[in-house]
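Observation: inputs received (chain + V47).
Thought: call the complex predictor directly.
Action: predict_structure
Action Input:
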Amino acid sequence: MDITVKDPLLTDIAKKVREGERLSLSDAVTLYRSSDLIAIGRMADSVRKAKYGNKAYYVYNQHINYTNVCTNMCSFCAYAEEEGSKKAYTWSIDEIRKRIMERIDEPVKELHIVGGLNRNLTFDYFTDMLKMIREIRPDAAIKAFTAVEIDYLSGLSGFSLEKTVSVLKEAGLMMMPGGGAEVMSDRVHDTLFPKKIGKDRWLEVTEAVHRTGLNTNATMLYGHIETIEERVNHLLTLRDLQDRTGGFSAFIPLSFHSKNTKLSHIPATTAFDDLKTIAIARLVLDNIPHIKAYWVMIGEKLAQTALFFGADDLDGTIIEERITHTAGATSAKGLSRKSMEHMIRSAGLEPVERDSFYNEVRGAA
Ligand code: V47
Ligand code: SF4
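Observation:
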């Protein structure tokens, strides 16, 4: 790898990357403070390329957001509604079945299911939902519930974390999405999402889930009130947990969208920050295999560009995204397989349709 570094502060970091040496907290902060985006991107691209060559992944998936009623009411969230609000909804098991059946002829390989914390739902609702989906969609993996929901379901069922996950697994749960940790900082937690579980509980739940043999993803919500140091600490905390469990499959940076939230004065993240965050994640998270450029949040065009800044995965076709679109996302609500493949091919890479576990799906168009 021959990388021209314009910022002299990046010379030693480029050497570490070239030699496969782990980056430190101060390296990550230096990367964040540097404006040499092209050098940072080239470093991240070299790491991605060494792992995946010309391949870039996507999954044919469908999102199911079963309820927007949520007791947490995080101030960055436009999606959540108080019980009784006109915009509140909760889908019955039959309504979820109907939404899956509407797409039953499509080759969906993953169902991504998350929702708010709704006091009116019983633990049986969740196991019934999983069992019903497994029955009608046996060919799709069920990736469901963030660590926040698992913590809530453990309270609801009265079971330990391990028992809760094993009952959900028995009913059909196969993997867990990221989400819920936001930025692991007590300051940000207490300011923006005080009712939601904090860093220690999120880590405890995630570690317990990994111990049961389920893989999860991890995310970072950035672009609100967090500092660079808080972002870097978040990444290093994830890296430490991954050293212990190896249970993270992918990391997904989530750019904050402020429309319709209590933080609507906060401007959108910039392309510079989005690309830098993806590249730094690739460089710092040396033990998390996949870095996703989530096109829903950063838009299709920047997600495609991110494939040269360390990302190896564009997430999925999605069909109908609600959480970010309620907060003002201007991207499409879903993309066809053809569009996903076109985005990847026109970047000179080879599209690989995958399942939730990064197995290549045969017979892709
Ligand atoms: O947990 C909420 C975040 C997450 C906003 O694991 C917001 O494969 C931006 O976790 N602006 C849900 N973000 C999305 C998520 C996810 C997405 C794609 C793939 C995967 C995966 C996981 O969205 C929430 C929260 O952290 N969020 N409100 C907002 N206004
Ligand atoms: Fe509820 Fe999740 Fe929205 Fe927070 S981000 S209010 S936990 S739905």
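Thought: report the result.
Final Answer: The chain has one domain: 56-362. The radius of gyration is 20 Å.
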